[in-house]
Prior knowledge:
Structural class: alpha/beta
Strand content: 15-25%
Mean pLDDT: 89
Shape: elongated
Distance between the termini: 152 Å
CATH topology of the largest domain: TIM Barrel
Helix content: 40-55%
Strand order of the largest sheet: 13-14-16-17-18-19-20-21
Largest sheet: 8 strands, mixed, barrel
CATH class of the largest domain: Alpha Beta
Bound molecules: ligand C2E, magnesium ion
Number of strands: 22
Number of domains: 3
CATH architecture of the largest domain: Alpha-Beta Barrel
Amino acid sequence: MTLAAEAYIAGKHRALEASETRFAHALRGANDGIWDWDLDNDELYVSDRWANMLGRTPDQVEPSAAGWLALVHPDDLEDFQRAVARHLAGKTPTIMHEYRILCRDGGYLRVLLRGVLESVAGRRRLAGSQSDISQRFQVQEQLEFAARHDALTGLINRAQLNQVLQETAQRMMREGARSAALLFIDLDRFKLINDSLGHAAGDRVLVHVARRLQACLRPGDHLARFGGDEFIMILDDLACPEDAEVVAARVLSRLREPLQFGERSLVVSASIGLTPLRAGGALDDALQAADMALYSAKEAGKARYKSYTDDMQIRVRQRLRLESTLLQALEQRQFELHYQPVFDMRLPSSAAPVAVEALLRWRHEGKPVAPVDFIPILEESGEIVPVGYWVLETACSQTAVWHAQGHTDLLCSVNLSGLQLLESDFVERVRAILQRTGMPPEQLVLEITESLLIDHSGNTLVALRELATMGIQIALDDFGTGYCSLGYLNRFPLHIIKLDRGFLHDAHASDAHMTICKAIIGLSAGLKLKVIAEGIERLEQVDLLLQEQCHYGQGYLFSRPLPAEALTALIEHTKIAQGARHEDQ
Ligand code: C2E
Ligand code: MG
Ligand code: MG
């Protein structure tokens, strides 16, 4: 019996030892510090790990509540004491509290305290664990930072900007608050930088720009990257609203200084829309107003700032109305083509035109809208692609009719937008249109612009080469107005250069324009390209062009662009005149 009892006790003892070992092992594994505070005697026990976390040993921690509190970060002390008191008062089932605690080296460690109150044999004890959460906290902080900042520039992002705007709006409600303003900054022609120098260079430009913008800020101002190449600046505490314009002017001039990339230097410019921030005003309204002002700065020629005015709203509404009706114009057959004849200026004025240029016309609410006003809208929406196919098909059918009427040599020119050439099946569709309409490819001219050559993607070049191989002629429109490098003239399959009407217009008055006209004609002859002069309005311009060996021209002097029927009458007339001339001989 005694033996059995001893065996039983020994067994229990072993079980207890095993359980304690398991407990100690689990504690080491959990890597948490353990603490136990006897409230009635104010005795604190801390485990080795608890103290080691702080670079201390347990005997270097004063074993009382005061000893512990002395280590709590002063800013966290009040919350710490409140969390313990709430638990002791029975308001929380356990303590779960994050705070910072002083380490031996003077730094602070972020820890999570857990604990629970127990009453054992009438004595109250608070015990629990303490874990090092500094790493988790760091990761969390990084994540929070990433959620509020832009990865490339390190500036605050859109989400954080909303927060800042809210705070500013609140501050402005206070009595005596000074003015604040919002600047919407957008880089000009950034797409061109990205496309021509690559995205890595584009990113570097954005980082440099962010730094320059930051250098224009005063303490209390904010700068956010709003997206792509758009930045928002919040100027707070301005003495008067006009001060925002001074800052905008400073930003423009800082940005104008060339950026140095190794050997290469690059000049970027920006457009800015600015609006005052009104106390209690809705945030979206401020952004919208600045955006409208920005739009108006871009429209006025870029590289400038504009302050918001109420009439901008009216103009934007008008444009929106125009846009929405324009998008239905194709379906509702509101487009029409006019044709402007191109003449060989060496022939008598009665001679038939050698070519026509098809020009798109749109009437809105009974009034004609200028192509320069509606074509950019079609391009922005991508609608120029279906409209462009309609133009091509209509122009080819009409020209085929003129061919059938006996004007077999007549060429037809059609203007292309860059977007059309990006369509992967563009060449196939052109081929199909030629087949459907019976238009010989050799008599079709497609006009492209310089910007299309600069902004080109690989597909553009391939498509142009295929079109040229089919026999179609490619003309470079408005030559001299863009930033085309002469090197492009060789790389692209070009047959014709159209001398922009701007140069010709001023040639008699400006030596520089005269020189440019002569140079373009000479250059084209050297490259074996035909030149067509645009916008001829006076006889002396014809003399000048003929002197320089430029033989083809179009302009109001000869004929305005005409509806198809009027052009039919014109060519019938010239044919008769020509016929009469033959008869005369
Ligand atoms: P563009 O291709 O350079 O067309 C020539 C422009 O000069 C036409 O303006 C024409 O009416 C105008 N013009 C002709 N002779 C004279 C003249 O003696 N004096 C003056 N001051 N102007 C003259 P329009 O029709 O307003 O077209 C403007 C631009 O719109 C065109 O310039 C072209 O870039 C674009 N465009 C027109 N139709 C189309 C189209 O179907 N598709 C595309 N993508 N663009 C088009
Ligand atoms: Mg043209
Ligand atoms: Mg032109």
